[in-house]
Design a protein that fits this description.
Blueprint (H helix, E strand, L loop, with lengths): L6 H27 L33 E2 L1 E3 L2 E4 L9 H10 L12 E5 L2 H4 L6 E5 L8 E4 L5 E5 L7 E6 L2 E7 L5 H13 L6 E6 L23 E5 L22 E4 L5 E5 L12 E5 L4 H8 L3 E6 L2 E11 L1 E4 L8
Antiparallel strand pairs: 1-7, 2-6, 3-5, 4-5, 4-7, 8-9, 8-17, 9-14, 10-11, 10-16, 11-13, 12-13, 12-14, 15-16
InterPro entries: Cyclophilin-like_dom_sf (IPR029000), Cyclophilin-type_PPIase_dom (IPR002130)
Protein name: PPIase cyclophilin-type domain-containing protein
Pfam family, one: Pro_isomerase
């Protein structure tokens, strides 16, 4: 008969179990990250819908994010003194509820919430719903550690769309500030700089025989290589880059635009990658009609290379990018 384990033995085995789990998670993480990283010390080490702020695979709460210590200004459509919630998520959802139609602009495109019970005092729970003159460049009242407010944005139909211009066509990308507010803030910063010198695609891999034209994985087919993506950098010369914090990480779908680690390296997926298990911050999605441009770039001449023991395909000539704003009046979206 087997000997019963003592309590002491159980306590000793717990650290070993935790250590084993950490090692297992680390190995899985490296497996997902290594195919994306070039052997270049400049590269940072990695540690859909197109409706209003929605991301396939992400939870509702994930896509109701704001920025703490930030107070946005703007015309109030609901006064916070008479409009209170227990969380910023509730405030965000209230704004989104005024932006759910497909037939016009949002009645609310920004929200401001006071959620620190001690610092907010009588203002605790106040949820101000606002309308910006320009939601991509909202009016700023105050920012900094002393600010007690948390603010967020909601992009409605035809709003928050930027173009990645290439010699092969323009990729229109719907940004998602309620899923990745810090990421969107950086993209807006690039727009304000009026250039993106150094921004480019440098890696391109098609769907091969592993994914169909809708991005669905073909049964029993390989998961790569090729990995069904185009990869590049959005680090512009002369624009200081700060690591972007981890934000919403839904399942990668065809058209997802996501950071590799904390940026500025990013990729556009040509397929649905359930196997990547929510490993990457997604900050936008390519409009479906523009995916043929991404496929065209993926079909350009490449050469083989090996990154961290993974076979990859690198473009013979990098595809340079220019970032510009797409105005709703000139685009029917």
């Amino acid at each position: 008969m087997g000997k019963k384990s003592s309590d002491t033995g159980n306590r000793r085995s717990l650290p070993l179990l935790v250590a084993a789990l950490l090692v297992s998670c680390s190995l899985a993480y490296m497996a997902f990250s290594f195919p994306f990283h070039r052997p270049n010390p400049r590269i940072l080490t990695q540690n859909q819908n197109l409706g209003v702020g929605s991301l396939s695979g992400g939870s509702e709460e994930e896509c109701c994010r704001g920025v703490e210590h930030l107070e946005l200004w703007g015309s109030a459509v609901k006064w916070g003194t008479d409009h209170k919630f227990n969380s910023s998520v509730g405030c965000c959802r209230a704004c989104r509820a005024m932006c759910g139609g497909d037939d016009g602009p949002c009645l609310c495109d920004s929200w401001v919430f006071c959620g620190d019970r001690e610092r907010c005092g009588e203002k605790f729970g106040e949820c101000w719903l606002k309308k910006q003159k320009d939601v991509l460049f909202p009016a700023l009242q105050e920012t900094g550690e002393k600010v007690i407010w948390t603010s967020g944005l909601i992009f409605g139909k035809g709003e928050g769309i930027v173009g990645l211009e290439t010699d092969h066509g323009t990729l229109h990308i719907k940004l998602m500030p309620d899923c990745a507010p810090y990421s969107v803030s950086y993209i807006v910063e690039l727009l304000g700089s009026r250039h993106c010198a150094g921004c480019q695609f440098y890696r391109a891999e098609g769907r091969g025989s592993s994914w169909d034209s809708q991005g669905n994985h073909i049964t029993d087919a390989s998961l790569g290589p090729p990995y069904a993506l185009i990869q590049g950098t959005l680090e512009a010369e002369g624009v200081p880059f700060k690591k972007i914090p981890t934000e919403a990480r839904p399942t990668i779908r065809r058209g997802s635009v996501a950071w590799i680690g904390s940026g500025p390296e990013f990729f556009i997926s040509l397929a649905n990658h359930d196997e990547w298990q929510r490993a990457y911050t997604v900050f936008g999605s390519v409009l479906p009609e523009d995916m043929e441009i991404a496929e065209k770039i993926a079909g350009l001449p490449t050469r083989s290379d090996v990154w961290n023991s993974f076979n990859v395909s690198v473009l013979e000539k990098p595809v340079h990018l220019r970032v510009r704003r797409i105005h709703r009046e000139s685009e029917q979206m």
